[in-house]
Every structure is written in structure tokens, then in C-alpha cells.
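=== RUN LOG ===
request id: a7f3
mode: sequence -> structure
chains: 1
length: 564
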Amino acid sequence: SYKFLLSNHIKNQRLDLARELFDKIPSPNHQLYSIMITGYAHFDRLDDALRLFDEMPVRDTVSWNLMIKGCLDCGDLGMARNIFDVIPERSVVSWTIMLNGYLQFGTVEVAEKLFWEMPVRDVVAWNSMIHGYFCNGRVGDAVKLFEGMPYKNVVSWTSMIGGLDQGYGLNLEYKDALKVFCDMLKFGIFPNQSTFTSALNSCCRLEALDRGKEIHAAAVKLGLGTDVFVGNSLIVVYTECGNIIDAALVFKGIGEKNIVSWNSIIVGCGQHGFGIGALVFFNQMIRANVDPDEITFTGLLSACSHSGMLQKGRCFFEHINRCNSLKVELQHYVCMLDILGRCGKLEEAEKLIKSMPMKANSLVWLALLSACTVHSNFELAERAANSIFELEPHCSAAYVLLSNIYASAGKWGDASRLRAKMKQKQIVKQPGCSWVTLRGMRHEFLSGDRSHPLINKICEKLDWLGTKLKEHGYIPDPRFVLHDVEDEKEEMLSHNSERLAIGFGLISSVQGLPITVMKNLRGCGDCHSAIKIITKIVGRVIVVRDSSRFHHSKNGICSCGDYW
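=== RESULT ===
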């Protein structure tokens, strides 16, 4: 048919052939004109589209709307408005297309004026305006408009939840997004896949596992428990909140898994240090005839890194290099360097950096520098740090890692000189912070922090733990206090941010339930040793997520096998 032939030419960018065919068609109808005009607009041939539009024997409202949208697609807002102004009869669709155009170009004030000038505003127009407010950072206006809507459909609620969830800059309103989701259920509006995805993303950002479980239950009740999009979001929530077992159960229950499903569970296993689990899921993925992509191998390499699987890591890395359908990316090199560094193959790691086809950035050198910290290789550490300083002269992480190497070896003079240099250059070290999310509220702690209202009870618990730890043979390791203050080292270790967060978790949560602590920096070896013993003392599971991975400690044993 003419429709098929025209569409095929345009799809394959043969616009001139499409026009030749069009000109031979006797009395082309509106649909064929629309196909041709849309094709011109799609490939930025606006003049051709306008000329063809002028040639149309009869132009109805649909034709005018199509031309307005074509102008907007080509980036010509002025021409779109000119056509809008001369439409003989504007429909609500005409107004909404023009409204979206102004919002798309960021002219919110003009869009507002147009919106209130509309003779009829349907729910689509209201939703467009709300979405436009969010896209342009006007969260308050979006909320106000939403509250004033005469009628809300599922798209309205989803736009609201999605807009609050995205935050658009500094307006991170995740709690409000979850409140809107709850209101939606109260009003009897059934959420769709997009609604659940946005709400679950808010749970993930808030690390609100309890709320995530509630939304999971709502999805199951509405028959979306096995939906792939909802399931993928649930995997991420459970993984990021420290519950990899439930993440795996959700994955198992998804009806038709896609590449995102497989990648999410493999990456999740990597984050939690379950290397064998990641390999098992990868093998299942291959048997299911799902082709792995670059993200899959990032997850696998990360899993190998956290589990000490050097040879497996090498095999995966070599496979990416050999496979024509895959592209070796910077993140793969960072993961491979981490694998080599953790295994003590520092010279091989440095050779790998020199062989990279792209220029190494600070992340690459930081991976090597971090490995030097673990293996106390001063010479290579200084080379890696200098490479970082050439790329980022004010990189605080490099200064801190190098200072830590000096301090842990008792080279206080070198460490002091480095800290003085940081002060001179006004480089500020990111303070260590740990937090626990309990009943939807996040409780944050800094080292030595006494601002929490329960600080006295927390310290009492920590003092009690300190006595019990000594009874169990625990001896504080002063190497992990990176300051030359010999008499205060034990106090610094016992009241750092991580211990304060654990103390709070112990006195504030139900006995027997796991405690999950999040940390913005990499954990220290002394805390790692202490936490394992604490789990024996209190009979509870303690999950700690630092900047690198998750640690699951139970009955004196950590899931990392002390390899981290």
C-alpha cells in the first residue's frame, strides 16, 4: 500500500524517494499527507513540511495540530505559535500541544498564561502543566496545581509521585512522594507500573525498607507482584536496603525477566559480596538465552573483586575485550584494577593502567591508591597520588588515602605534612558519617557526636559493649586511628560514627531484628573486627554498607570472609 511504502522510505531516511512516490499518488488523503509532513519534521526539514502543508487541499484540526508539533520537534517555537494563532478552530489538543511546547522550551510563565486562557482544560492539560512545573524545578507550583485539579486520573497521581521522586535538583521530596502514593490508594486509584516504580525509587533513596515492603504488598494485592518493571524496582530496593535474600526471591518470582532483571540481581550480589551467587545467576542468564551487556560484566567484575576471585575476574575481563558486541568501558578497568589490587597484584595493576586505550582518570588511580593502602606500598602509592593530583589538584580522597598510609605505618611526620598541605590548599576531608533508618526516620552520627537526643543511652550501651568486647578477647587496633594521639585512640575507636549508629540501633529497635547501618566512607578494620564480636554478644545480625560494599555479620562471622 502507499502508506506502507511511504513509511518504509521515511523510516530508512529516503525522504526524496518518499516525496517522488507521494507526488505520483492520485488525490492523496489526509493520512498520507500526515505521514509525509511528520517525516519531514522528524528529520528537521521544516521548510519542506510547511510547503507540503500549504499544498493540502483541505486542512482539518488534526492537520493543524500535526504541523504545530512538527515545528516544535524542529525547535521552532515561534513558527509553532504563528500556526497556532491562525488555526480556524482550536481543539483542546491544539492548546495542549502548544502548552507542552512552551514547557519544553522552559518558558513556564508563557505556558501558565496559555494554560489559564484555555477555554476547556482536560486532565491531559492539567497533567502536562504539573509535569512542566516539575521539569522546570517549580515543585511548589506543581503541588498547588495538583491539589486544585477538579479530576485526577492515574497519570495525574503518577506524574506527582514521579516528579517528587525525581526532585529536579535540590528539591528532594521523597517522603512527599510516598505520602502521595498512600493518598492515591486511599482515594481508590489503582497505581500502574510507573507509579510503583517511582514510589519504590523513593523508598530506595530514603533507604526505607519497611515502606518498600508495604508497597511490595500493595503490588501483590493488585496483581503486579510478578510484573517485570515492578519486580526490577523491588530488587533494587531490597538490595540497596541490605536485604539481598528478599531481592533474590523477588527476582525468582518475576514472570518474564528482561536484561534489567538479570543485571539488577547480579550487581546486587556483587554489592553484597556474594560472588558465587552472582556467578550462579550469570549461568542461569546464559541458559535463558539472554545476552549479557556491559552492565552485566561490571556486576560480575565487582562480585569477583569483593570475593577474591582473581582468575574468574581475569576471564570476564578478557571476554569483554574479545567480544565484538561488547565495549570495554572505564568502569571495567576500575573493577579489574580493584580485583588485582585486593589480591596484591599491584605491579600488574599499574601495567594495566599503562595499557589502557583511554586516558586514565582519577577513579582509575584511586583504585590503585586504595590497594596501596591495604598492602602498604608507599612508593607506588605516591606515584598513584601524584597522577591524581595532576588530574585533580584538590582531590581530597587522594590526600586522605595517602595520609592514611603514612599514619597507619606510624609516619606521623609525613602524615602531618600532607594534612598541612591540605589546609594550605583549603582541601576539606569529607567527614565520616553513619546512619540508621528506623520507622521512616534517618538518624545520622558523626565521630564523637553528642547531638542525638538519646546520646547518653547510646554511650551507656557502647560502654557496656566495650566491657563485653574485652571479655571476648577484643583488643582495639590503634593503627586505625589516623591521628598521633596515643592516649585517646581507644576512645576514638569506641565512639566513632559507626559504633554510635550501632549503639542507637541496639537501644531503639526490637530485640532480635537485624540492624542495618549505612556509612559514607569505607569501614575500618577495627570496627569490622568489633562488629563481628558484637553480633555474638547481642545475638543479632548487623548489616553495614560502606562506600564499597555490604557486610553481613552474624554469630561472629562476616559474609566477606574477612576479605575486603
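=== NOTES ===
Residues 455-471 form the longest helix (17 residues).
The chain has a mean pLDDT of 91.
=== END ===
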